[in-house]
Amino acid sequence: MQKTNKLYCRSRYRIMSGNEIALGPGKVDLLESIHKVGSISEAARQNHISYRRAWNMVNTMNQCFNKPLVESVTGGKGGGGAKLTPLGEKIKTIYRKMEAKASLSTKEEWNSLKKHLKK
Amino acid sequence: MQKTNKLYCRSRYRIMSGNEIALGPGKVDLLESIHKVGSISEAARQNHISYRRAWNMVNTMNQCFNKPLVESVTGGKGGGGAKLTPLGEKIKTIYRKMEAKASLSTKEEWNSLKKHLKK
Q1: Fewer Cβ neighbours under 10 Å: the N or C end of chain A?
Q2: Which among A64, A113, A118 has the least Cβ separation from residue B117?
Q3: Quick one: CATH architecture of B18-114?
């Protein structure tokens, strides 16, 4: 083992709908990328996953929620793309808030765990 | 997809020390089993993992923390076993508290996400 180790706490939330992961860290990263770049293929590239994988993730989210989180945009200079629906933006925001609140609420425990870990 | 889906939120915390998982859900389950049954091999069986895997997990925890979390017990009717050290008990308790606090603090977000998921 190295002499000094970076100590950190990684939390991950998975919203399950039966056996399907309706939402998780990878899917939320993808939503954020689609929001930024306006295309599933470019968002896939940024997240180092295949277009097929990204498309499947979008499809699963759209199936698991009452209304789609991502919709296609026709026309425009790139010949169309994708964007988040109002629900998609809302869900992405709630998920990040969830992560932030969890991290804040467990600060005391994390600090106390950290004291007992080798530096 | 089925007609009705069980909706739930699964959270998982990983305490990282460099590239090593010092503590995570599997390791804490193992600590709890060792605490109950007093043996690594029996705890491994209960957690459906091999003895080798369980032993490696214990070894990683013992290496990552300042002091061991699990120690061997010599003698006794079974010819010895394993038990948690005071630090082991403490760490297991802190981790479970962390999970409970995170779940409590994100209740509002989870309820709001749930409303938008297909039943």
Answers
A1: C
A2: A64
A3: Orthogonal Bundle (1.10)
